[in-house]
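Annotated sample (chain length 108).
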Amino acid sequence: MFAALTEFLTGAYLLMGLVALAAYAPQMLTFYRRPDLCAATPLVTWSLWTGQTVVFFMYAVVVNGDPQFMMTTGMFMCATIGCLSLIVRGRRLHAQPRRDNVVVLKAA
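Output written by the structure step:
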């Protein structure tokens, strides 16, 4: 019975990992489409979450060794790294001066 429960929980963990990963998609799409929102997104928080998922993934690979655990934590790590990268990208784009509405005057 314990083996069946362990197998069920392993499958449920993987499934919930996929569900949670899908939940990152709208966030990433918003960060990509609306770089102005990245300025109000807490960079420290996303950095901590990214560091946390890197540690989880390293634990899965080095200590645990379970392929499903490695895959799930690896997906979370990639999602948080993706979000953090999009936040940094959005902040850089938002910080740059806009040049599309600049009129250049030239002497006649």
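Annotation: The helical segments are 2-33, 35-38, 43-64, 67-95.
Annotation: The two ends are 89 Å apart (CA to CA).
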